[in-house]
Amino acid sequence: MASKLPDAAKGLGAGGALDVEDGSGGGKKVAGRWPGFVHFFFVLTVVTCALVYAPRFLSPTVPVDFLGPRQPSSGRAAAVQGRSVDGGRGGNEGDALVLDNQVNSPCASMGGHGICCDRSDFNTASANATVGEKEERVQPYTRKWEKHLMANIQEVRLRAARPDEAQDGHRCDVRHDAPALVMTAGGYTGNLFHAFNDGFLPAWLTVQHLRRRVVLAVLAYNPWWAGTFRELVSGLSDHHVIDLLHDKRTHCFPGAIVGTRFHGILAVEPARTKDNRTLVNFHDFLAGAYKDDSTPPEANQQQQQQQPRRRPRLGLYSRKGTRVIENEAAVARLAESVGFDVSILETANGAPLSSEYAAVSACDVLVGVHGADLTKLLFLRPRRAALLQIAPLGVPHVARGCYEKATAMMEMHYEQYDAAANESSLVRKYPADDVVLRDPEAATRERGWDLTARVYLGGQNVSLDLGRFGDTLRKLHSRALRLPAAGP
Ligand SMILES: *[C@@H]1O[C@H](CO)[C@@H](O)[C@H](O)[C@H]1NC(C)=O
Ligand SMILES: *[C@@H]1O[C@H](CO)[C@@H](O)[C@H](O)[C@H]1NC(C)=O
Ligand SMILES: *[C@@H]1O[C@H](CO)[C@@H](O)[C@H](O)[C@H]1NC(C)=O
Ligand SMILES: *[C@@H]1O[C@H](CO)[C@@H](O)[C@H](O)[C@H]1NC(C)=O
Known about the structure:
Elements: E1 9-12, E2 19-21, E3 31-33, E4 37-47, H1 49-53, E5 64-65, E6 80-83, E7 115-117, E8 136-138, H2 147-150, E9 156-160, H3 163-166, E10 174-175, E11 180-184, H4 192-207, E12 215-219, H5 223-228, H6 230-236, E13 242-243, E14 251-252, E15 256-258, H7 279-290, H8 297-306, E16 313-318, H9 328-338, E17 341-346, H10 353-361, E18 365-369, E19 386-391, H11 396-409, E20 413-418, H12 435-438, H13 440-457, H14 466-482
Parallel strand pairs: 7-15, 10-14, 11-12, 11-15, 12-13, 16-17, 16-18, 18-19, 19-20
Antiparallel strand pairs: 1-4, 2-3, 4-5, 4-6, 4-9, 8-9
């Protein structure tokens, strides 16, 4: 595919011995040479224009080459000067740059470790290959198993430059003293679950150890993404974001990470990180990004302690269109009568995520019918809050699969309320003995994901049995009261 493209290429990388800021943690910048050079040199060329500007090329991939032996005249190509890794933790002054924070990752097999590639779609044999031996192709998105989606994720191509090319003196328009993370703002980013699950959580997993000393080089960059997630973008990086496809300058970096890590659905596996990170640490990252500093948590906790008989707060997500709680007003009154203060939380109402963060983090219990809103369980207070997910008929496993584990990783309480057939709006559409109502599992086995998507997820509301749902609410209410007012 690359060969068909014109040499409307641009490069990204670093050449030569760069002066870098070495050490971090404090504000003090120590300029110095990278110790332990390894003589390899990469050119990352983004061959873009044909695809980006000329829609007649319907190919979805935008190759990015490290090295452009056949396009030396493009001159846009620079390189990443590799640098050895000493195995130390990133961030300590004097330590070598540690690009990769994962344990036993395929990326650790890269010669010199100047570039760390996502090899999650490589088989184990080829995961051993070094960049020098073969071209690396990386689609920097997590959902490698979804062929249809991945066809729309731009591809980055990496090759090692020959020594003579490396000495050619690639021009750097911009020299960065921090490594680059090549990631994408594309994929299912418009859906909040995917924005976190496949975007920001993986990006955080990949670069959090660099403590914002990383430059985000973003494919499919767009202003909506930058605006909607601006707190997270600046929480990840101290630097301006590079719009990889449209920025015409040559950027030079001391190292690069291409692609992001993925530990599972909304998951952080501490044992897979060198610094034992957890999902609670990711929550803390979100708290730091969104929190308005005027109310430190200690102050809140003191207030709560002084209140004699605290009413725990329950946030109830109010969906529109599908998976609506048809008796929502009665459910809210029920929760009040059980002893909660109730907030009705609007879904996708255009409010900035920072205000969503504030609303959700104030809740002791977050309640909602299965949907992307519940991703905001990440905003709840770890170790204290509870998530109550209402699963419509036919999707209890799907619902549980999305959020139960993440809730546990936040050390919070997970509760699931499975709607029965007589609580589903599908009773108005199907006769009582229809397999869709009678045996949803059998119906799904027979008709597959289409039935789930169209009927159980896309065509169903619920009307909750107030008696049974009240029991669940009372249980969560007494749990909330049992918790000491001040958290750890
Ligand atoms: C990777 O390379 C090392 C050293 O060359 C070798 O010992 C190891 O068996 C290789 N692993 C695989 C999966 O090929
Ligand atoms: C990782 O963190 C957990 C909890 O924070 C702790 O119990 C465990 O001992 C830590 N493991 C290592 C290897 O540091
Ligand atoms: C679910 O409720 C919404 C809002 O009331 C309504 O627009 C929609 O038609 C309902 N869907 C079904 C399947 O009843
Ligand atoms: C709804 O069905 C459940 C069993 O699936 C039953 O226990 C309950 O009594 C029914 N409720 C009504 C209002 O019929």
